[in-house]
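Worked example 3. Consider a protein that binds 3-hydroxy-3-methylglutaryl-coenzyme A.
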Amino acid sequence: MSNLPTKARIFEVGARDGLQNEKVEIPTDIKLELIDRLVDAGVTALEAGAFVSPKWVPQMADTKQIMEKLNRNDNVSYAVLTPNMKGFDGAVAGNADEILLFTAASEQFNQKNINCSIDESFERFAPVVEAAKAANMPFRLSVSCALGSPFGEEILPSKVAEVAKRAFELGAYEISIADTIGVGTPLQTKNVLEAVAKEIPLEAIGVHFHDTYGQALSNILMALQVGVNKIDSSVAGLGGCPYAPGATGNVATEDVLYMLEGMGIDTGIDLEKMVRTAWFISGFLGRPPVSSVAKALKNKFNINDSTSD
Ligand code: HMG
Ligand code: MG
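Given these inputs, the predicted complex is written out as structure tokens:
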């Protein structure tokens, strides 16, 4: 274990992945307060929203207003999702610091999520990438279904590595290897990440794990052992993709923080503030966080539970 990193970068996806699948309308001001609280806790990279079709994902329809009203902190990178040039134009108009492009290792999921094949997604990315480079806009690229597909196709590590390599060659600074439906297990995670690491530098690999089967922390531990220390997570374990049937939330940021702190791995984020933020957004949603750590620390931090008010 001596090769474990001493620092990890958390990308907070709660305001986007976390909320995109919620059925109740979440007021823009609540999203803005969530973002403020995440920043106050020490988060330096977060997804603020998505410039996607509001017909496809209604919950992200106020991303323009979010970007206009953000209380910006210069130390924070505010990212948005952009599936195409229309999304990129929104990102530029909204002064996003960076963008996330997204494709998948599963053809079927890509069709359902962005209405095109993997090859076509790269064709769509080409003008976005050209414009992003001209505008000095850094971009990450997410590879969904890297550890399994909701449609039962077998996802080979070599396929994930091939898509990751194409993404890296486009110029993405980070390729986020995503377990969209939270089915992966640790040895599988190791195999996939090692296959990817044969094609692109370790420093360019990130992980984005949903926690449907409760494997995300174990998979993150495996990722750390492989040498990957860029982790996406979502406060309170919120999240899910409307086009990934059966998928539940992302790994909870507070669970990741607790594990990393216990292992002496620094993130710069305050665990207590993150737990308070988890209870804040859960209070609005009217249900407790799924996070074990948020529940375990509620009494210690004297947090008022308003999830059933
Ligand atoms: P399409 O229907 O093929 O696109 O959808 P289109 O170009 O024919 O446009 C259809 C309509 O959408 C038009 O409007 C466009 O103007 C509009 P209409 O004429 O019908 O009124 N449109 C847009 N509106 C706003 N912003 C845009 C935009 N683009 C077109 N950027 C499209 C293709 C990609 C647009 C659609 O499939 C879409 O928006 N998909 C997004 C799905 C999504 O957001 N999924 C969740 C995020 S990904 C995720 O959660 C996975 C991740 O977390 C990693 C993991 O866990 O795996 C990242
Ligand atoms: Mg996701």
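Take a moment to read the result before moving on. The beta strands are 9-12, 45-50, 77-81, 98-104, 139-144, 174-179, 205-209, 230-233. The mean pLDDT is 97.
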